[in-house]
Amino acid sequence: MPGDTARRTESIELDGSAGVVKARQLVRSLAQEAGLSLVDQTKLVTAASELARNTVVYGGGGRMEAEAAWSNGRSGVRLLFADEGPGIPDVELALTDGWTTGGGMGLGLSGARRLADEFDLDTGEGRGTRVTIVKWAR
Ligand SMILES: Nc1ncnc2c1ncn2[C@@H]1O[C@H](COP(=O)(O)OP(=O)(O)O)[C@@H](O)[C@H]1O
Ligand SMILES: [Mg+2]
């Protein structure tokens, strides 16, 4: 992305609940370093938690990549959640509040989209899932 720079991407293995805990801790510390407010730190950690859990539960495990980000003089945090699982056939449906195939609340993906400043979902039937979110300090 033009104007964006990043350094030191850290990767966390998401193979179970221990990975989700580690991901939450890393996201909290990157959010603090980026100067996000306490409220925005919590929004980002909440979004990350939901996406990490989806990676474990539906994606069959995967990883989170996390890095500091800068754009137009703002600092932020960029997170990627990637798995090689079954993918999501209907993205619009998956982003609908309350839609779940796993008996959950169906608010993870839609909630993460609302909580982040930028949200990108790259998936499809049979090709895994990649979700990228960014949260900027304001
Ligand atoms: N990484 C993923 N791989 C495959 N399917 C996923 C993934 N993440 C989400 N989904 C699908 O999207 C649905 C909605 O996810 P979400 O909004 O987090 O709700 P919930 O986790 O409560 O089901 C899931 O039930 C699942 O069918
Ligand atoms: Mg979920």
TrEMBL record:
It comes from the Bacteria. SMART domains: HATPase_c (SM00387). Residues 39-138 form the Histidine kinase/HSP90-like ATPase domain. The lineage of its organism: Bacteria, Bacillati, Actinomycetota, Actinomycetes, Kitasatosporales. It comes from Streptomyces albidoflavus. InterPro entries: HATPase_C_sf (IPR036890), HATPase_dom (IPR003594). This is Anti-sigma regulatory factor. Pfam families: HATPase_c.
